[in-house]
Specification:
This protein is of the alpha/beta class. The protein folds into two domains: about 5-105 and about 290-310, NAD(P)-binding Rossmann-like Domain (Rossmann fold, 3-Layer(aba) Sandwich), CATH 3.40.50; about 110-285, Rossmann fold (3-Layer(aba) Sandwich), CATH 3.40.50. Helices cover about 35% and strands about 15% of the residues. It binds 2-keto-D-gluconic acid. 2-keto-D-gluconic acid (8YV) binds near residues 59, 82, 84 and 289.
């Protein structure tokens, strides 16, 4: 293994997409870093230089698809900024023995906080009433009544690490929590609902916290939205791909659901024009983990995973085998 701190022979690391400035500076200190994002023609660059790189620093957003992995024949380690691995071809990497470091756990609190912020915002109309005050409409009369949150029913799609923190937040609001996963989790005190449509029919709020990727694509279908019903709210802090976005827009247009709080979209940062028109929808720019504290912790893990790999041959926190 090469020694990352020796100035003479730093491992060559490719960076896909921008990262935090402080993290980029640290990576440049420890590695012979090259930003693929600097290249006008990344394909041509990779054809010439791809074989030089042993490491790849990326993020949940930019990932590492099959084409990129194939263009890096000497690649030994990927370190990704984020918990989501849906943009990384994990199977292809692992088949080549490439280790993948990522950053779970440290973002659970902030993502759960954002989910809960969206629950309260859509139900109580916080963003909408802020627009109302700024537009001077209060002078003409009161903001319409909204929907209570405390004591309601919260359905969670994906009771994993983040989902369990959302459930704990919900207990502080005296909410009844049920969840849907592929399999029940015997370690949690919440009721398991084997059928997502039944969970949606039961819930006042359906919060999506599942992983992205092919297995969960469009799980929240037109039928699930219909089951959530005209008094139900949908929250998504997971991946846009989990929801059939076209069906969601249609459900909002027809009043099939009461409203939605969204942090993620099918084709970020592009958002369907029609979504922008609804006052009962809160739209966030994929910011759930974006606090100084959490992003610092994620950045530290990205660096630590790389340093550990080049020191010992093992990342500290690796994506489990696919
Ligand atoms: C970040 C995320 O937006 O961790 C994830 O999977 O989606 C978010 O925390 C992402 O890591 C930034 O690329």
């Amino acid at each position: 293994m090469s020694e990352p701190s020796s100035a003479m022979n730093k491992p060559r690391l490719l960076q896909h997409g921008r990262l935090l400035p402080a993290l980029e500076a640290q990576l440049a200190e420890h590695f012979d870093l090259h930003g693929l994002w600097r290249e006008a023609d990344p394909k041509a660059f990779l054809a010439r230089h791809g074989a030089e790189f042993v490491g790849l620093a990326t993020s949940a957003r930019f990932g590492a698809d099959a084409a990129l992995i194939d263009a890096l024949p000497a690649l030994k380690v990927i370190s990704s900024f984020g918990v989501g691995t849906d943009a990384i071809d994990v199977a292809r990497s692992q088949a080549r023995g490439i280790q993948i470091g990522y950053t779970p756990e440290v973002l659970n609190d902030c993502v759960a906080d954002t989910a809960f912020g969206l629950v309260i915002d859509v139900a109580r109309g916080l963003s909408a009433s802020d627009r109302f005050v700024r537009a001077g409409q209060w002078l003409q009369g009161n903001f319409p009544l909204t929907t209570r949150v405390s004591g309601k029913r919260l359905g969670i799609l994906g009771l994993g690490r983040i989902g369990q923190v959302v459930a704990r937040r919900a207990s502080g609001f005296d909410m009844d929590v049920r969840y849907h996963n592929r399999k029940p989790n015997p370690a949690v005190p919440y009721v398991y609902e084997a059928d997502l449509q039944a969970l949606a029919a039961w819930a006042d709020f359906l919060v999506v916290v599942s992983a992205g990727g092919a297995e969960t694509r469009h799980l929240v279908s037109a039928d699930v939205l219909a089951a959530l019903g005209p008094a139900g709210f949908l929250i998504n802090v997971a991946r846009g791909s989990v929801i059939d976005e076209e069906a969601l827009v249609h459900a909002l247009e027809t009043g099939a659901i009461a409203g939605a709080g969204l942090d993620v979209y099918a084709d970020e940062p592009r958002i369907p024009q029609r979504l922008l028109t609804f006052d009962n929808v809160v739209l966030l720019p994929h910011l759930a983990s974006a606090t100084h504290e959490t992003r610092k912790a994620m950045g530290d893990m990205v660096l630590d995973n790389l340093l550990a790999f080049f020191r010992s041959g093992q990342v500290t926190v690796g994506v489990p085998a696919a």
